[in-house]
Amino acid sequence: MPSHDVLRELFITGLVNAHAVEKQALSIMTPQVARIEHYPEVADRLRAHIEETNGQIARLEEILASFETSSSTIKDLGLSMSGSMAAITHSMAGDEIVKNSFANYAFEHFEIAAYKSLLVMADDGGFSTATAALKQSLGEEEAMAAWIDESLPMVTRRYATLYAEGGSLKAKV
To answer: Most exposed of 46, 124, 142, 164 (fewest Cβ within 10 Å)?
Structure first.
């Protein structure tokens, strides 16, 4: 087992990385929700998850502060920019809503894995004060992934129906 100092260093690095990933999530979801036209339930769920994500960021900042450190502006900015580029790329596709659903589903599972890993490090390193906050964030990510999974048939069918009817497939411009 690595030393306590090594586990502390790895845990802090993981927290900083998770913070940057949550910032990236915001940069992906915010433009999506602004462009959704024919899928009000998706827009509503994204708005709710944006609020959850802001809470996750605040919890990560609290945990980092307890270690007398903070997030990485460079990592936050870099991942936010890459998230914005992904959102822009999908916005040019006629099947934007379907591609966004795929990407969001994958991204939620990336976040789930990150929180599970942080919980292992918190347990192994004895950082139990962080456990409740990390479990709360994990639960929110799992719930969002489950919602995307459950809603994908509806999104796909509505997209196909709009396509067949010749309706507007593009989101709002």
So the answer is: 164
